[in-house]
Amino acid sequence: MSDDVATGTAPDVAVPSLPEPRGRLSEAVVTMLARSPSSSRTCTRSLAAARGADPFGDDLQLALHICYELHYQGFDEVDAAWEWAPSLLELRGAMESTFLTALRAGTPGGDDAAGVLDELLVEPAGAGAVPRHLRQAGEWWQLREYLAHRSVYHLKEADPHAWVLPRLRGRAKAALVAVEFDEFGGGRAERMHSRLFADLMEEAGLDSSYGAYVGLVHAPTLAITNMMSLFGLHRSLRGALVGHFAAAEITTGPSARRFAAVLHHFGVGERGTRFYTEHIEADAVHEQVLRRDVVGVLLAEDPRLAADVVLGVQATGLVEQRFENHLLACWRAPAPRTSLRRPLPGASAGQP
């Protein structure tokens, strides 16, 4: 038996299945992926639908997620050649344009990158509404739902940010690599942040398989990771990806402290809390590195990217706020309801 298998740190090699479509766009994407990439053409009606779709709706966000996932782990029984099939890229491009336009329209904009990052250091009134709800009035099933939502990103944590590495150079690249090295466990598979989150899911009685809950989450969850993939896969948006990463690292420390307290409140043990406790100290260091050595150096070399850095910071706040609003609208309703497309099985599974 190998050391990885013996210690339980073997990577999850399961490839997810395609999720069920939720509308015309996701149906078109799923239908295309069932065919041969060499024989498929873009449907004119699908392009028109992409241009007129709700940018934050379930259909477009799921369709984008499926397209982007081809650049990560792919899907079971889907030809890997679809990753760069021109017909699918044309449709994806139309959806991306709709989504990016909405992100720009939903944010104030500007080019004061240092200013918007400084603003993140002062938490607004009402910050931390979700962990506060979970500690004061939340139930175990709500915490499990939160983890299922976050698994869409955290089981691929730091992967979208790796796309920007070839687009940087010199000191900025070296500094971002140092941050990514920590995210990937400092070279130890069992310390990778994605693995730590999988440990937490298992402690909560959840399925830690990659992509297990994509079919259950709504658009606000999908939009968070889709935004990262959009910024990461386009060299022209490298400034936005760096801005997003900096914003995430600045805000994660306080958030991680709150969620560690939530887990302690529910009696989750050390294996389950390690994901958040790891972030409390690490991201305090990462924040300084990203602001000074990545954002600062990048803008010193190319000041024209300042507006994109601002977009990345503000868009992160936009999609995170939409996600928080969705959760609280469901959980604080007069008759609290699931924030997922259907409730998780075994409401008390994994409860300490």
From TrEMBL:
Signal peptide: none annotated. Residues 1-20 are annotated as: Disordered. InterPro entries: Haem_Oase-like_multi-hlx. It holds the Pfam family Haem_oxygenas_2. Coiled coil: none annotated. This is Iron-containing redox enzyme family protein. It comes from Actinomadura vinacea.
